[in-house]
Each structure stands twice: as C-alpha cells, then as structure tokens.
Write a structure and sequence with these properties.
heterodimer, A: about 1000 residues, alpha/beta, about 25% strand, B: about 450 residues, five-stranded parallel sheet, about 15% strand
Chain lengths: ~1000, ~450
C-alpha cells in the first residue's frame, strides 16, 4: 500500500493528458442581437466583445470567444444560416421581433444552440403577455452593467455542455447553485465564477508555466444553475459522486409553486446523503439561519451588507480554497497549510487524532480537489482510513503521495526562478532571467517535455527512475549583462589566448541581480553541480557545437556558504569565457557564424552520481546514437550504437577507452571478444568529482575540478564491484563477477549480459523516441546510478539529446567499375554522401615515420600546416593512422577541432600499429560528421586500398618530421555513396 | 631435400606456410641425415612431412538470431611416435589447412625437445570469436566437439588452447566431450584450476627460461647469484623471468615495452615487480609509469631512428630478450659483448637476428635459442596431462620442481646433441638435432606405420 517517496504514481502519467481533453466544447463564436439603442447603452463601457476579452485576460483564461453583432432578428437569422455559432445572446427588444419569438426561430435552425436573454430588468423576462412561449430561451439574465456577467454566462453555457463528459473523464467537481430569481442568479453567478477562477488560480502550485496553468484551469469545478427544486434534485442525483457543494435559496419553486422551505428540504436531503458536502443556504430572511443550523449548513443573508465577503468566506473555509486548517476533533485549530508544500511538511507533524479527523472527513481530498489535482484527490477519496494499519502508515501514505504529486507537477515544465518561492526539491527545471535558454538548455527542456508526454517509457520500466537532472538555466541576458557590465565585448573579435581570456573573465564582476538569485539557489541546493554552456548555436539542428565550450563541476558542499557561491560564480565566469576561446571561434568561422553573435546561456545542473568516499561519480555514463556509422558483425546502421564508461562522461566524449555495443545485441562486444582484447580495451581510468579534501579554491583549470582515478583504486567501491569482472591470472580467464578475489576488469557484463539494469532496452526505446521526435537520427547522453539498496530504485538520467547528421542522402552517387579501377584510394567504410571536386591539397602522416610515441608532435605539426592552409583557403585531405581526435595519445593523433579546422576530408587508417576502434562517439567525431566532412576509413589488408606509391611520388609542397603536404595541380574527385558507404578518390592530374 | 619439397608442392599445391616449415627443419637437420644413412633409407623425411591423419569436418551452429552458420573444423594428427598427439586448437578466420600443417609440424619437434611423451598435432576452425556472444561461442564449441570427440582422447590426442581458444572455449569443449563420452579425463589441457588445470602455467615460460640459463651457467661453474641481468619486454614471460632471477639471487635492471624501456640501477625487487605485474597485466599501462612510482629509475623513450636498442647497451652479465622477434640486431649483439654479457637466453621467439647469434657463438657467449629455452610453456601442458592421468593436482612447488627438472633435461639433451655433432656449446644446433632425432628414432623403432 505504501509507496516509495521517489516513486511517481502511475495515475499521474496521464494527468496532463486528461487536462487536454477537458472542456472540449468551447464557446468560440457568439451572436449578439441587440437594437442599436441597447447596443449603445451596453457599449458605454466598451463593446461586449472587448469586455469579454478583458475579462478573459484579466483572469488568465485562454481563447476569448469572438462576438458578431446583429441589430435585427432578420440579420441574426441570416448570420445563423451562413455561419456556425456556439451561443446567441439577445436583448429583449429587437426591432422586428421580440426575443422569445427570435429564440423559437433560432431553435428551428439549430435546436441545440443555446439562446440567452439578457434583459435590463425582470419585467422584460416576464412580459405582460403571459401567452408567450419561453421555449426559445434557455436562460435569462438581468444586465446591471456588470461585465462579469458576460463571462459568467459564457462559462455557464460551456459548463452545461461539458459537465457530463468531464465528470466521467476526470471526475471534475460540480457546484450547484439553486436560485429561481434572475436578479439574484445574475448577481451570484458572476460572483461565484470569479471566485472559483480566482481561487483555483490562487491555489495552483507556484512555479508552473502558463500552459500548465491554463490546462489546470480546465479542471476547475463546474457550476450548474437550477431554477427549481426538481431541477436541483435531478442535478444533485446525476452528479452525486462529483458534488463539490450546493448553494441554494431557501424559497424556491417546487411542483410549479413557490415553496418557502423547498431549499431547506433540498439541502437536508443532500446532507443525509453526503454528510461532508459543503452546503450554503441563502435567504433574504435572516430568521432562516436556524434552518441552516438544523441542516447543518452555512447561512447567507441575501440582505447582508457583507454578502460578497461572506460568500468569499464560504469558498475559502468550506470549499477548500483557503488554507488547510488542521484541527483537533474538538474543532481547535492547531495549524494551517496554504499550499501543497506546506501541507506535506505539516502532515508530518500534526497529532494522530487530527490526522484521522481530517482523513475520515475527506478533507484532504476536498482540499486537493479544489486545486484541480484530480488524480490525487480521487486517489485519496478512494482509500479509507481503515485501509491503514496505523496512523503512521496513513501519514506516510499521504506525505509520499503529496510529495510525488508536487514533483510530478513540475515535470516537463520550465518555471521562472523566483527567489521567494523557489523549492529546489520540487522544481526540476527553472530559469533565471527573461532571455533565451540557449540551444542545449532548449533541447533539455524539450526532452523534459518529451518524457512527460510519453509516459509509456515510465510504465515500461517501473523499476527505474527515469529523470532529467534538476536544472537551473541562467538565460542569455545573464551573459549579455555580464559582458556589458564589464565591457568585454572586444574579446569576440580580437585574438587572445584562452588563459588571457580566463584571467580577465575571472576578475570581472557578476551582475548584482544575478548574484542575488544565485544566492537563493545555492542556499537551497546542496548536491554537486555541473556548470556548462548553452550557446544559442550549440546543438542547433545540424550545427552541434558538441563539447566546444567548457564544462565545470563543483562539489557544492563547502561548509562556508560564501565559498559555495564563489565556486558557482567562478564556474559561470569560466563558461562565459569559453565563448571567446579560439576553439569556439574557429568552429564559428567554419559554420559561418560570427563569434559576436554568440550569446551564452548557462546550465547549472545536478551532477548525477553517487558518493563513494571522497569521490562522486555515476556508475555508468555514456552516449548512444540512433545511427551506427560502423556497423560490424551483425549490426545494422539503423540499430544504433552506444558507448559506456564508468564515472563521469568525460571519458566517453573525449574518446577514451569505453565499451561499445549495439543496443540490439548488448552481449556482442567486438572489442571484448577474447581475454587479451578485454584486458587491452577495458577502461583503466575514470573521472570523478572530489567532494572532500579539495583545495578551497578548487582546481577549475585542470580537468574542470575532476580527478582522474584508476579503476584499480576504486575496486572496493560498489559501482566497480558490480560492473567489473574478475581476472584470474592463473587461468588467464575473466569471470563475470566482481566479488571474486583478484584484479577487477570493467566489462559491464552484469548490465550488458545479465541485464541487472535493462540499459540496452531502455536505450533502444529512448533512441527511437528521440529519433521520432526530432525527425532525424539523434545522439543522447545519459548516466546511470545503480542502487545498492534494494528498496531504492536505480536511476537513469537523460542528459542531452542532439541531432546527428546521417542519412542525408539527397541524391544517389554512382561509383562505376572504371572509377574503382582508377582510384588511388578505395574505402568501403566512408561517411557522408556526395561528390567533392574542390580538394587539391593532401596532408599525410608519412607511413614509415609514424611512431605511436610521437603523436603529440604530429598534432602540433598538423596545427601549423592547417593554419597555413586555412589562410590560403585551401581545403585539404588529411590522412593518418588511428583514432583522430582521441584524447589518448596512444590510440591516435590527439588533434582537437581547431588543429584541423580547414579540413574537408579525413582518412583514418586502420592497421596493426594502432588498433583503436573508430572514433565515433566522441564530440570531436560528432562535429566532424555534422559539418559534412567526409570521413573515410581505410583498413589495411582488406578490400580497401590506398596507393602510397603514387602519393609518395608527388613532389612535396611542405615536409615536416612526420608530415608531408602535397599540392596537386588539379583537385581530385572524391565520391561517396552514402547507401553502400563506398568511397573512391580519383586523381584528375 | 629438394626432392621432398618438390614432392609436397606437387601433392599439396598452395600450402606455402607448410613448405617453409619443412624447408627450415630440413636444412637444420641435414647433418643428421648425412651422418645417418638409415634415415634416408627409411625415408624418414618423407614420412615425417605427411600427417598421420587429417580430419576436416563441418561445424554447423546457430547464432543468436536463429540463423544457421557453418564453419570448417580441422585436426591435424601429425606425429604420435613419442606420445599422444598434442597441440593447440586455433579459432581464427585465417585458419586453413596449410597453416595448421605448418604449426603441427613445428609442434612435433617442440614437444619432443621437452623430453615428455608428447606427439605433435594442431587443429582449429575458421570461426571468428570476435563479435560473438558467449552463447554463440558455446554453441560453436559444442558443435565443434560433437565431431572432434571421436578422434581425440587422453591417450590419443590431447588438444590445448591457442589463438581464439582460451579458458572459456576450453571449458565449453571439455564439457561437451565429457557429455558425449560420459567420462571425465584429461582430454584437453589449459583447463581451469578447479577442474583439472595445472598451476604454474603463466609462470612456466619465464621460469623455464631462467632454469635453462642457470643450467648453462652451471657448465661454467657459475650461478645467477649477484648477476646483473637485462630483461626486455614486460609481459608474462619477462615478469616471471625477473621473478625467478630475483629468487635465484640475480639483479634485473631493465624492462621495456613498445614505448621505451626503464633502467633501474638498484634492481627491480619483488615489490617493484608486483607493481609491474599489475601495471602490465591488469591495467595494460605503459612501462613509463614505472618511473612515476620509482623515481630512481630512468625511462628512455623508444627511438626508432637509432640503429640499435639502448636497452642492450648497459653493463651486465646476462641478457634475457623476452619481448619480440628481431629485437637484438648485429649492433646490439656487439654492445652486449662489449658490456661484458656472458649469457643470452631467449624468452621470446627468435629475438636475435642470425648476425647477432654469430657474434654470441664466435665470442663464446652462452646462447640459448628460444625453441629450447622457452619450452617451459609446452612442458607444463605435459605436466597437466600427467596430473590428470594420476588424478592428482600438484602444488605449485611440485610443478615448479618438475619444470626445473624438465629444463635441466632439455639443456642436457641440447648439449649432448650439439657435442655429438661436433658443435659443442651450440645450443641451437643441439636443439634442432635433439628434437628431430628423438622423433625419428621412435618412428624407426615402431616400424613402418
């Protein structure tokens, strides 16, 4: 019965979906029929149309209806014949017909179209000629100049039309007003509507966004008007299960006659049927208060000078719109809660007697229902106090559910950060400032909404918490204000080293308004944080600036508040500084964006992971792509590929040693086929954040505060024990268990082979969801915390999603046999598609001079040659062995993007010297492919071919220790067939 | 000799690898044939190059997707003159008849040299374990054994592991054999320790090499005590070479990998060796990390532009090249000699180029060729068979003692053969001749089969 605190009840999944389906019938088109005179009078304070619009916007309601005016019955009928209307509002006197006859005519055209009579006084509703047929008029109201009435009668029509469906669909509550006098109901109805709308809005949980607010408003109570005892009783019976309250006049018609205490009888009957139903008896005779007490019901004197206030009090105190007042069984007030947050914390403290008192009377359910939180209100209504073995259990149940609801309400929502009501525990996604979120944060917000709208992913993995880490975004105006305040604009255009930029930015001052907001944030947030960029350009479709800017991690647990704040601010400054790093500028140039166009949002995000002694890291982090550029064995390109590693994701995005697998065949790991392969390819180092014993000033500029640890040193830590296998040297064998004595080797076997965590299925589903929602292949970053406590769920964090550039084949490239014969290079593993005839420069690592130990020097030499070629605007082909862009110098030449920014095509040679797996998965690779750079793999001793003899025989334009630059007279032809991945390079000289 | 080659080329066209092996062995045993006309008379060469039996069979198996796959299985039962066929199984796409025949042929003499009762064989399949799941590997192994089982047995043919066949595969193969035969016997070597495997397997080659070196020194009334040793490489063979040298009182000052080498003048002691073992076996790190931990050592990055390997240019008494082929060139040979090295004992396969070997032989430097000094690995396979037959598991010390005895025997056999053929102290000639004569004599003893 009891649920875990962190568990989201499944009924909430469809919560927002329900809202979308509510109030499906809306009054959008109103035909307003009035004589020019009536219209004149009405329009003294603006037209009915503008009054309605004002009312709507004043109450934050959506989509005000459109009003079409007709000044005669004839004109009105002609409108009705031409166009569909949802409601007709008519004044009593139109020149050629009275309202009653017009009503009958209208009903002939459309019997279900509501016709409302708006009279100036009661006489016009009850005309002298008693023979009039009233059937053409659905409801009559008295216009006393109060524009609220217009809104009320529109809403009342809508309520009548939707009540049946919405109560069935979402158990929406029903408030019944029993009043026969048009004078009074024209007075009360607007009051009640306004009160309901205002109260509902007032109690909606803080911090949610506009869309959520409007949707939730649809679940406000419906108000139904009954003009006599029979009608009232019928409504009460029909909506008995959904009744929210009944407000009745004492003297109302019964059996066609006015009966003095018919209202009293009605309410007495309802009290008997539903003992805790809020009831209000109204009367113009104050003596009827004794009758009200008898029921018992709240009494309202219609002649009271404080009528409005008394009605207001009824709403607050009886209908649950006010504070939740905790009372002891004897009625003594002991505490109050004004919102769900307070309710959750106070329920934990009140005495058992009070808890039982309220639970037995459905007070919790009523109060929650008035907040339109239908699912939880219904859930509370369905369980009885007797279902719980103790008050303690009941208390835990209430707290867990309210907490889960609060969390759930925040999901998929970007809330504006407000210092006074920020709640770090509940608010998953908040934004500081009014500027843009930036590309990455936008995609995070999109993911958040995406998950929210696809609840099946939660339903399919009930044993896992699937989440987006809690996120605060400092929108771009923070950056703009910082740059302006400190006069740093020049850094966009002038050339400085990264160190110079950092030094100036670190000395610069953060705008005061931003510091104030960050103070509130830091005061509440105690977990480690990652601080990274969200540039306007980053991760934009086809221009993923993946990993071009810096990310900083901070432990955020220093005992001194001021230090924690200082760490956060330093991190933000450094992220801002990275906008103007040469790396980012080079990338901007190659994508033809000017660096000065850059405006940077900053994402401050909960760092996902667990504490292990002095360190903090996730058990698994990884990148998954929905398109596999290197499908080997039985893999197919569209089945995708994933790369995972222990610890923080730096290992994966830098292209370090990771485990690569197809989510479709997780137990097939080509690089882990034999024991020697496993030993050679298993991850040795991982990144963790040091959360204890770190220097006060942290270590921002080296590994962004991260520590590079050896897997070996962490073998006693739970994540390693669980994910590692054990090497048995005597048998030269690896056993898939981390708990045996012997050295630990990270194989992730427990997850990939034995499915203790359904990572591969989850990734397949996520990639499919991402691909469908973005409309192209996607790459997602994720991390996993594996719970060591059986009672606690493991967690999957969705960290980032961006489009991949693949399958962009617009035209088919034919490669002929003759071309294959003529080619100086043939590859069967090339990325991209198309023909390129603009490259005449070839820079290559001299095969005989290549030495794995000299890769750093080679990177330096490439940088110099690149600079020259970029200056001359000569796109070039770069050829070399091993994994391009790897951070591990032993796996390939560790170039960064800026070292090769002028490249148009790259050849990765795979041979015995460097047996690295291909580069995909790293940010470097993502950038290469997204810029449409041809990426060609040539594998020695395969069907691939490269004519070294020809290339070596060409005169060198430049030569360095390890490189040779050849300039051909004419560009060569490069052709890649994206479907077959075949590529040829043909010399045209 | 030429006749033999022509014969096999005509009979088995396209088996290049096999021709090469036959040619090499043939040349090395020419003096034996010259001295023993009986061998020619009895056509021993013609007999020895023809496998006693070749089994080629279909290995159908089902992959994880339910798709039927078919591979080809092989077992070359080359020679059983001195014991049951013994040799590894290789699972690799490059496997074909020629390669397996070449390997089986070499195995016959390697095994003979150990002085243990082991014939020669080899087998395998063109199955590629790369990119296969555990279940697929298991299904393949079971299918493979469902044919092979009828051709092998503890007294007939005892396969071991090789490329692509490790402890996992041996387990699956053994399990299937046991089920089909309904008997638990030592039909495979390389088993896990819990069910029939032997101790001292990883140590065997390195230990064996040092035992061999000690025997060589003993011929000059010397021991390893206080000897300064250069060891190259840092893998299994090098590590256990260092371990045994330390145990026998020597001092090792170098270790290397492809990135460079370290020189530790104080010597690599047991705790430093433990660090290296972890670094190289588990972490697969670079030897350069040694100096991060032990700052007294010096790291020299590999420089391919040099015409020599500076590792061999240090004052020392003994050298144990245990890294890779051709790691000692002529200049290195000269350097070793100049630096006073008295013994070169090969842990790797053919680490010294012929010119370097000549320098050693010309200068009376004790030189142990890999085929003799690194036979410890094969020897322990033989010891695993012995333990299985006795239904006993010897403790490490006992296996080690027996390994020592075997190396001593190999040493003596080589020495005897060399002096018998007028090449005293030439262990290379001795090894070639001893292995060959042992097999051939047994064949002759057993008649024309």
């Amino acid at each position: 019965m009891l649920q875990e605190y962190n568990e989201i009840p499944s009924e909430f999944y469809s919560h927002l979906k329900i809202f979308h389906e509510l109030m499906s019938i809306k009054v959008r088109e109103i035909l307003f029929v009035s004589s020019p005179y009536d219209a004149f009078i009405l329009e003294e304070d603006g037209s009915p149309a503008s009054r309605i619009i004002n009312e709507y916007s004043g109450l934050n309601l959506s989509l005000p209806p459109r009003v079409t005016r007709a000044s005669s019955a004839r004109e009105a009928l002609s409108h009705l014949n031409k166009k569909d209307f949802d409601m007709v509002l008519t004044m009593p006197n139109v020149d050629d017909m009275d309202a009653f006859s017009l009503g009958l005519e209208i009903k002939k055209i459309n019997p279900s179209l509501p016709v409302i009579l708006l009279a100036h006084n009661p006489r016009e509703i009850y005309p002298l000629t008693k023979k009039k047929d009233f059937k053409g008029i659905d409801r009559s109201f008295i216009w006393s100049g109060n524009s609220d009435l217009l809104l009320a009668l529109v809403k009342n029509v809508e309520d009548r039309l939707n009540v049946g469906r919405d109560t069935q669909k979402a158990m929406v509550r029903v408030l019944i007003l029993v009043e026969d006098s048009p004078v009074y109901f024209s007075y009360f109805l607007p009051l009640i509507y306004k009160e309901v709308v205002k109260q509902t809005q007032a109690v909606l949980e803080v911090g949610i966004n506009e869309e959520h607010r409007l949707l939730t408003m649809r679940a406000r109570p419906k108000i139904l008007l009954a003009e006599n005892y029979e009608e009232a009783l019928e409504l009460c019976q029909k909506y008995r299960s959904f009744l929210f309250g009944v407000i009745s006049d004492t003297r109302i018609p019964r059996n066609g006659k006015m009966v003095d205490d018919a209202g009293f009888m009605l309410l007495s009957q309802m009290r008997k049927e539903i003992p805790d139903l809020p009831l209000l008896l109204m009367s113009s005779k104050s003596s009827n208060k004794t009758k009200a007490d008898q029921i018992p019901a709240v009494f309202l004197d219609k002649n009271s000078p404080n009528l409005l206030e008394e009605l207001h009090n009824f709403f607050l105190n009886n209908l649950g719109f006010g504070d939740f007042v905790f009372r002891m069984p004897d009625g003594t007030e002991i505490d109050r809660a004004s919102n769900l947050r307070a309710l959750e914390s106070k329920v934990a403290k009140i005495p058992d007697e009070s808890l039982c008192y309220h639970a037995k009377r459905n007070h919790f359910s009523n109060w929650i229902m008035s907040r339109s939180e239908i699912a939880l209100a219904s859930k509370f209504r369905e369980v009885k106090a007797s279902d719980f073995s103790s008050a303690h259990d009941m208390r835990s149940y209430i707290i867990a559910n309210v907490h889960a609801l609060r969390k759930w309400c925040q999901k998929g929502v970007v809330a504006q950060f407000k210092s006074h009501n920020f709640d770090a525990d509940i608010m998953d996604f908040v934004k500081i400032g009014q500027g843009s979120l930036g590309g990455k944060a936008r995609s995070l917000a999109f993911m958040s909404a995406l998950l929210h709208q696809n609840p099946t992913i939660y339903e399919n993995y009930p044993e896992i918490n699937i989440e987006i880490p809690k996120t605060l975004v400092v929108s771009t105006d923070g950056f703009e204000s910082f740059i302006k305040l400190n006069g740093l604009k020049d850094f966009a255009t002038q050339s400085f080293t990264n160190e110079e930029i950092n030094a100036v930015f670190l000395k610069a001052v953060m705008p005061e308004w931003l510091v104030k907001e960050l103070e509130v944030y830091v005061a509440q947030v105690k977990y480690p944080l990652s601080v990274r960029s969200s540039s306007l350009l980053e991760d934009a479709q086809f221009q993923p600036y993946a990993g071009i800017y810096e990310t900083y991690m901070i432990p955020n647990n220093h005992p001194e508040f001021s230090k924690r704040l200082e760490h956060l601010i330093t991190a933000i400054k450094l992220v801002y500084a990275s906008t103007y790093y040469e790396e980012a500028k080079a990338f901007s140039r190659s994508t033809s964006n000017q660096p000065q166009e850059e405006a940077m949002g900053v994402i401050i995000q909960q760092l996902t992971g667990e504490e292990y002694g002095d360190y903090f890291y996730p058990a698994i982090s990884g990148v998954a792509q929905s398109h596999n550029f290197y499908p080997i064995s039985k893999m197919k390109p569209e089945e995708g590929i994933a790369h995972i590693a222990l610890g923080l994701g730096k290992t994966v995005v830098e292209g370090g040693r990771t485990v690569r697998f197809s989510p479709k065949y997780p137990s097939v790991m080509p690089q882990f086929s034999m024991v020697d392969d496993i030993l050679a390819n298993a991850q040795r180092f991982f990144y963790a954040l040091q959360i204890r014993n770190y220097p006060d000033e942290l270590n921002f500029l080296e590994y962004s505060n991260l520590v590079k640890r050896e897997v070996d040193d962490a073998e006693a830590e739970y994540a390693v024990k669980l994910l590692a296998s054990t090497y048995v040297p005597d048998e030269h064998r690896i056993r898939d268990a981390g708990y045996l004595p012997g050295p630990k080797i990270l194989t992730f076997a427990q997850v990939l082979k034995y499915n203790i965590f359904p990572l591969s299925h989850l990734l397949s589903d996520m990639l499919e969801l991402g691909r469908k929602s973005m409309g192209c292949p996607v790459e997602i970053e994720f991390s996993v915390n594996l719970s060591s406590d059986k009672k606690k769920k493991s967690e999957f964090f969705f960290l980032q999603m961006r489009p991949m550039v693949a399958g962009g084949e617009r035209f088919e490239v034919q490669i002929t046999h003759q071309e294959i014969e003529e080619a100086f290079c043939i590859s069967n593993q090339a990325l991209g598609n198309g023909k390129n005839e603009r490259i005449a420069d070839i820079v290559y690592v001299k095969p005989d001079d290549f030495k794995p130990e000299a890769t750093i020097q080679m990177a330096g030499e490439i940088d110099k040659l690149n600079a020259g070629l970029v200056k001359e605007k000569c796109p070039y082909l770069l050829i070399g062995p091993g994994r391009w862009g790897s951070a591990d110098r032993w796996l390939g030449i560790p170039v960064q993007w800026r070292n090769i920014s002028g490249v148009d095509a790259i050849i990765e040679l795979r041979n015995e010297t460097l047996k690295a797996d291909p580069s995909q998965g790293s940010h470097f690779f993502q950038n290469i492919t997204s810029l449409g750079i041809h990426y060609i793999t040539v594998t020695e001793n395969s069907e691939d071919h490269f004519d070294w003899e020809w290339l070596d025989s060409q005169p060198a334009s430049q030569e360095t220790a390890y490189l040779r630059h050849v300039k051909l007279d004419k560009p060569f032809t490069l052709k890649i067939n994206g479907k077959t991945s075949q590529c040829v390079l043909i010399n045209n000289n | 000799m030429k006749d033999i080659l022509t014969l096999i080329k005509d009979r088995d066209p396209g088996e290049k690898e096999f021709y090469q092996a036959v040619e090499e062995v043939g040349e090395s045993v020419l003096p034996v044939l010259d001295r023993n006309p009986q061998y020619r008379q009895e056509a021993v060469l013609e007999r020895i190059v023809e496998p006693e039996r070749i089994i080629i069979f279909r290995v159908p198996w089902m992959d994880d997707q339910g798709q039927v796959q078919v591979n080809r299985g092989f077992r070359i039962q080359m020679n059983s003159a001195i014991g049951p066929y013994k040799g590894g199984l290789r699972f690799h796409p490059s496997v074909n008849l020629s390669i397996l025949k070449f390997l089986a042929f070499e195995q016959v003499f390697k095994n003979a040299l150990t002085t243990l009762a082991m014939g020669g064989g080899k087998g395998g399949s063109d199955f590629d374990p790369k990119g296969k799941s555990d279940n697929e590997v298991m299904r393949f192994c079971q299918s493979f054994m469902s044919e092979l089982f009828r051709h092998i047995g503890p007294n007939t043919d005892v396969p071991a592991g090789d490329i692509g066949v490790g402890a996992r595969e041996i387990g699956y193969l053994f399990g299937m054999y046991k089920k089909l035969r309904n008997e638990f016997t030592g039909v495979l070597t390389g088993k896990s320790l819990g069910w029939g495997g032997s101790l001292i397997r990883p140590e065997a080659t390195g230990y064996g090499s040092v035992y061999f070196a000690a025997e060589m020194l003993a011929t000059r009334n010397e021991t390893l005590e206080d000897k300064t040793c250069l060891v190259s490489g840092s893998g299994n063979v090098s590590q256990y070479t260092v371990e045994k040298i330390i145990e026998l009182g020597g001092k090792v000052v170098t270790l290397s990998d492809s990135s460079g080498y370290i020189y530790d003048e104080e010597g690599i002691d047991s705790s430093k060796l433990d660090f290296v073992k972890r670094l190289k076996n588990i972490k697969r790190g670079r030897i350069s990390e040694y100096i991060d931990k032990y700052s007294e050592a010096v790291y020299t990055e590999a420089d391919t532009s040099l015409d020599h390997n500076p590792l061999w240019d240090h004052k020392a008494d003994c050298a144990f090249p245990s890294a890779t082929e051709n790691e000692i060139n002529e200049k290195d040979g000269m350097n070793l000699m100049k630096n006073g090295v008295k013994l070169v004992c090969e842990g790797a396969n053919m680490p010294s180029v012929p010119a370097a070997i000549n320098i050693f032989l010309d200068n009376k430097i004790l030189y142990a060729p890999g085929k003799a000094s690194n036979a410890g690995g094969v020897a322990v396979s033989g010891l695993e068979m012995a333990q299985n037959s006795m239904r006993l598991s010897w403790p490490a010390e006992e296996v080690d003692q027996r390994l020592k005895m075997i190396m001593k025997n190999i040493h003596q056999t080589c020495l005897d053969a060399a002096s018998e053929y007028n090449k005293p102290g030439n262990y290379m000639a001795g090894a070639n001749i001893a292995g060959f004569t042992k097999v051939v004599n047994a064949m002759l003893d057993q008649g024309l089969l």
